[in-house]
Amino acid sequence: MIDLQQDDGLWTVTLNNPTKANALTAEMLEELVSIVRAATDARALILTGAGRVFSAGADLDAARAGLATSTLWETLSGAIAGLPCLTVAALNGTLAGGANGMVLACDLRIAVPTAKFFYPVMKLGFLPQPSDPKRMAALIGPARTKLILMAGQKVSAQEAYEFGLVDRIVEPEDLLPTARELVSDCLTADTDVAAGIAELCR
């Protein structure tokens, strides 16, 4: 349910469980962690989803069994944030719940116009993973972070763009081409220079 395509240093990782809105199980998170940890020699990484939803977050059955508070989410986002290459989340649709962590950990985020963003942890009785509010607040400020995490608001793609949560809004047919264009310089750049710039931007 996780597809990986490698092409001349570009790693494209696709959540591929569209019949369940790409809801994530522990096994899927473990596979994602394994892929990201192996991507230390990648020149760029694109994270996307199949179908009309990027991810609904945790699979409901898995969440009830404890996945909602698993450290796997934090392990995954930390692994993505630690990559020396440029990472792009190409959001093919709505982003919900714990799946926010991996997207917040990416360097860039682009989304289709119909995407919505929400993270209803407080309503569900959970704390978010520790790094998620910090990364979100660094992008959009503490008040707007509370708007999502505490007021439980669903944010449209346009609002997300205006907030700074999303860097570009693109039509569905342009989503992956735009992501590939954004990483194109990294595919030919000196890897030490690219990694050095990434480190200076942290």
Structural summary, described in words:
The chain has a single domain (2-200), classed as 2-enoyl-CoA Hydratase, Chain A, domain 1 (Alpha-Beta Complex). It is built from ten helices and ten strands. It has helices spanning 26-38, 60-64, 72-81, 100-104, 121-124, 131-140, 142-149, 157-163, 175-188, 191-200; strands spanning 2-7, 10-15, 44-49, 53-55, 86-91, 94-96, 108-111, 116-118, 155-156, 168-169. It has a six-stranded mixed β-sheet with strand order 1-2-3-5-7-10, with helices on both faces. Strands 4-6-8-9 form a four-stranded mixed β-sheet. Helix 1 links the parallel strand 2 (10-15) and strand 3. Helix 1 (26-38) runs parallel beside helix 3 (72-81) and helix 6 crosses helix 7. It is globular, with a radius of gyration of 16 Å. The termini are far apart.
Keywords:
202 residues, alpha/beta, 2-enoyl-CoA Hydratase, Chain A, domain 1, 6-stranded mixed β-sheet, 4-stranded mixed β-sheet
Could you give a short description of this structure?
The protein has 202 residues and is α/β, with parallel strands linked by helices. The protein has helices at residues 26-38, 60-64, 72-81, 100-104, 121-124, 131-140, 142-149, 157-163, 175-188, 191-200; strands at 2-7, 10-15, 44-49, 53-55, 86-91, 94-96, 108-111, 116-118, 155-156, 168-169. Helix content is 43%, strand content 20%.
Number of helices: 10
SSE string: EEHEEHHEEHEEHHHEHEHH
Number of strands: 10
Range of helix content: 40-55%
* Structural domain count: 1
Largest sheet: 6 strands, mixed
User: Could you name the CATH homologous superfamily?
Assistant: 2-enoyl-CoA Hydratase, Chain A, domain 1
- What's the CATH architecture? Alpha-Beta Complex
Radius of gyration equals 16 Å
CATH C-level label:
Alpha Beta
Beta-strand percentage? 15-25%
Q: Structural class of the secondary elements?
A: alpha/beta
Strand order of the largest sheet: 1-2-3-5-7-10
